[in-house]
Design brief:
- The complex is a heterodimer of chains A (about 375) and B (about 170).
- In chain A, about 15% of the residues lie in helices and about 30% in strands.
- Chain A is an alpha+beta fold.
- The radius of gyration of chain A is 25 Å and the shape is flat.
- About 10% of the residues of chain A have low confidence.
- With about 170 residues, chain B is mainly alpha-helical.
- In chain B, helix 2 crosses helix 5, helix 7 crosses helix 8 and helix 7 crosses helix 9.
- The longest helix of chain B is centred in the middle third of the chain and has 26 residues.
- In chain B, about 40% of the residues are buried.
- Classes of the chains: A alpha+beta (about 375), B mainly alpha (about 170).
């Protein structure tokens, strides 16, 4: 045994795992799972609105049933331009992108960071595996290489997009140069990293484009065409969309009259992607926009664990226990203030999808209706 | 050094059939913790890096357990996790207006130990190369795979580490 090794061992042996190391690991794993679930449930607040008209025009047809997350479909389709062919990648998360024939697609799940996972796809002309924290694929990137990555972050700190859904189609000119990742310490050829953060049907996405220093004109056009082909699939009412907030897809927004109050019962709702069982809610359309009200049992207050109904005559919500709520969910009558503090109805996050459907998530609730109205109203 | 010696070595696992994750954990935990302590320079941080690595492997045990060298996978996972933490810490420091000084590695170790003093003076990559090749016994090719660098880089880094320790020891002896 070398002298160096002996000396290192002497220092290292001062550290000993406790007797309960495996039990600690089990607790840590359980906490980590719980944190992921909670964070994912809180995640994705935000925005809607702008560009719906453009997107609606760009979208059409029916959405096919959601395939399993690990079985993306790659469909051949004629190229829009030119004599060659292009391929279309159809992602289970509701988006598609077309790219030049001969390029490859790799799915990646980059979970090097604690509690944070980047799930995405890398499309390249040299077979890049892709990754966000793990960018080792850059080591083998040739000077004429290009990579397009589309990914979503899950877990980690709460991410609340405040911008409306991204206007589609996008173009490379909208991307910003990412100095940090562009200069990361990997080998391989000199390259430029361009990035665009987007919101697509209420869910945050990021697209990163890596360009080698000597890419061909045809590959540059291929990148530009691929970027501009990126779009959301049309949604189908009665399904869910998105893995982060996991929205229920309801009917088209223009199908709900101003002033209408529509009840959605759990029997008509699919299971949330996050595993939460369906629970009933009311969708209210005011003049300016939409909001949704639900009544999960609030243990800290706790008098709305009851069959809430809407009275069209008074335009109020009530329960047999005497509780009454106004149209915005605020408390009108507390059945027993000596026992319970006021217990308003919960306001769920509502957005309008790019193809004009109302989206409601049972996984994000807010203090009042102002954000919903802003996101779903004319200015949203 | 036989990296899978734990499967058959004295005092180690002797049961037939596939190894369970718990058995793997109990076999490898102390060694990984000590190695990462030498790389990271902090008991707490080494413990966190180890826990993260083991949890990741636990979640994939069905696949990792059937690999020829799950121990190598464990070390690679731990080193990747530590590199990510290190990069994030550097990025955070770069973004704050008035950065606090980075934590002193081995701050809680015995300052009189010449090896501790030598390790403190090494760059993290030098420590990793030294630990993987000297303490764990990997060859430079294998260590390079684990660290995501070329074998020649490992040899250079480890050599610098060894020189630093030797010179510290000699200085103490004088």
């Amino acid at each position: 045994m070398s002298e160096i090794r002996t000396r290192l061992e002497r220092v290292a042996e001062r550290v000993s795992p406790g007797e309960d190391a495996f039990e600690r690991l089990t607790r840590y794993r359980d906490n980590r799972r719980r944190t992921r679930r909670i964070t994912a449930g809180l995640l994705a607040f935000a925005v809607a609105g702008g560009g719906i008209g453009v997107a609606v025009a760009a979208l059409g047809g029916e959405r096919s049933p959601r395939p399993p997350i690990d079985t993306p479909t790659v469909a051949q389709s004629p190229s829009v331009e030119g004599p060659g062919t292009s391929q279309t990648y159809d992602d289970p998360n509701g988006w598609t992108i077309s790219y030049p024939a001969g390029w490859s697609v790799h799915q990646f799940q980059d979970d090097q960071l604690i509690r944070v996972t980047y799930d995405g796809v890398a499309i390249s002309n040299f077979g890049a595996a892709g990754g966000v924290q793990d960018t080792s694929f850059l080591d083998s990137m040739p000077s004429d290489g290009v990579v397009i990555e589309v990914f979503q972050r899950q877990g980690g700190p709460l991410y609340i997009p405040t911008q409306p859904d991204t206007l589609l189609p996008i173009s490379l000119a909208e991307f910003t140069r990412n100095v940090w990742i562009g200069s990361s310490g990997h080998g391989g050829a000199e390259r430029t990293a361009l990035q665009k953060d987007m919101v697509l049907n209420g869910e945050p996405f990021t697209m990163v484009v890596w360009l080698g220093s000597r890419i061909s004109d045809s590959d540059r056009r291929g990148v530009e065409d691929a970027v501009s082909s990126f779009h959301a699939r049309p949604l189908t009412p009665g399904t869910t969309t998105g893995r982060i907030a996991s929205f229920y897809v309801l009917g088209k927004a223009d199908g709900y009259a101003a002033g209408s109050v529509s009840r959605f019962d759990d029997s008509n709702l699919p299971n949330s992607e996050l595993g939460r069982p369906p629970a009933p809610f009311y969708l209210v359309r005011t003049g300016p926009g939409f909001y949704a009200l639900a009544w999960p049992n609030d243990l800290s207050r706790g008098y709305k664990d009851c069959p809430v109904t809407f009275d069209p005559a008074t335009r109020e919500f009530s329960c047999p226990n005497g509780a009454v709520w106004a149209l915005d969910g605020s408390v009108v009558t507390n059945p027993d203030p000596s026992v319970h503090p006021d217990d308003p109805l919960s306001v769920l996050l509502v957005r309008i999808s790019l193809d004009g459907h109302v989206l409601v998530t049972p996984n994000v609730s807010m203090g009042d209706t102002s954000l919903d109205l802003r996101l779903t109203g004319p200015a949203g | 050094v036989n990296r899978t010696a734990g499967r058959t070595g004295a005092g180690q696992l002797t049961t037939a059939g596939p190894e369970t994750f718990e058995e793997f954990f109990r076999r490898e935990h102390a060694r990984l913790l000590r190695a990462m302590y030498l790389v990271v320079g902090s008991v707490d941080e080494a413990d966190e890096v180890c826990q993260d690595a083991f949890v990741k492997i636990w979640e994939r045990w069905e696949r990792v357990g059937s690999l020829d060298d799950p121990t190598g996978y464990l070390y690679r996972t731990a080193l990747n996790g530590w590199r990510s933490r290190y990069r994030r810490a550097r990025r955070t420091l770069a973004r704050v207006i008035a950065p606090s000084p980075p934590r002193d590695p081995f701050a809680d170790a015995d300052d009189r130990d010449e090896v501790v003093r030598a390790l403190r003076g090494l760059a993290p990559r030098q420590r990793a190369a030294l630990v993987l090749t000297e303490l764990i016994g990997y060859g430079s090719e294998e260590a390079g795979e684990l660290m995501g660098v070329r074998a020649v880089t490992v040899r250079v880094l480890a050599s610098q580490g060894r020189s630093a320790i030797r010179s510290n020891v000699e200085r103490d002896d004088e």
